Amino acid sequence: RSILTTWSHGTAVPHRLVLRSKTILLAAQNVESKEIASRLGTTENFVSKWRRRFAQHRLAGIEEDAPRPGRPHIITPEQVQSVVNTARHVQPPNATHWSVRTLAKAVGLKRATVHEILRGHELKPHLTRTFKFSNRPPSFSRSSPMSSGSTSTPGTHARLLV
Fold first, then answer.
1. How far does the signal peptide extend, from start to end residue (predicted)?
2. Residue 130 pLDDT > 80, yes or no?
3. Which residue has the higher pLDDT, 9 or 23?
4. 95-100: long-range contacts (C-beta < 8 A, 24 or more apart)?
5. Within 13 Å and on the Cβ side, how many CA atoms surround 44?
6. What is the mean pLDDT of residues 112-116?
7. What is the dihedral of CA 31, 21, 38, 41, to 10 degrees?
8. Side-chain half-sphere CA neighbours of 110 within 13 A
9. Separation between Cα atoms, residue 105 and residue 111, nearest integer Å
10. Which long-range contacts does 52-56 make (Cβ < 8 Å, 24+ apart)?
């Protein structure tokens, strides 16, 4: 009871735990569920749920949330390795870097799964450092200081020294 009282006044505990504690303390005083819900600004379902959990599991029942329903998210080690290897070592077709969507399509996984794997491995394929080569020969580059645009009059022989 002292722990519940401490939690119900708690400033350093999560609010959900404060509400659960107050619910149990009021229930211990034989207050009806409808009245508890009204006082705490919750629903009767909330009060019933936490009364039942406390009756079954005592303090541990209200301290921790129960596992949520649904299928657990499973990513196999092979899938993780495939995403990591592809992101690190394979050049995407017709692109300079992988996006999450193109990588997901390439490895056959959902975009959210690929995003989770990349984030877990701190991989950011869109931030890879690369450099580009120019297609022009260096002597005919527009920004070359040597070809500063010398002109000649018609009929004379102009020479460009590089």
1. none
2. no
3. 23
4. 96/130, 97/125, 97/126, 97/128, 97/130, 98/125, 98/126, 99/125, 99/126
5. 5
6. 90
7. 180
8. 6
9. 8
10. 54/20, 54/24, 54/27
